[in-house]
Design a protein that fits this description.
The chain contains three helices and two strands, in the order H-H-E-E-H. Strands 1-2 form a two-stranded antiparallel sheet. Pfam families: DUF4224. This is DUF4224 domain-containing protein. It comes from Advenella kashmirensis W13003.
Length: about 80
């Protein structure tokens, strides 16, 4: 089974321990999880954000960002 871009309803319920959309939003805000509310009131959470927020994924850098490394010439 392939992963989708957004968490499935069952995954969102598992993450927040809430079934109502308004309660899920409150739980996500409390946890600092980025989310969007759809026009129908349901909640969208990017799977990639969850991986990053819980330390399971790599941070995606912008093209103008540089990876910080030690000054090896000074060693």
């Amino acid at each position: 089974m392939s992963e989708t871009t957004f968490l499935r309803t069952s995954e969102l319920i598992s993450l927040t321990d809430r079934t109502r959309h308004d309660a899920q939003v409150r739980a996500l805000r409390f946890m600092g999880i980025e989310h969007r509310v759809r026009p129908d009131g349901s909640v969208a959470v990017l799977r990639a954000h969850i991986h990053f927020a819980f330390g399971a994924g790599d941070r995606v850098m912008n093209s103008d960002e540089k990876e910080i490394e030690p000054d090896w010439d000074a060693v």
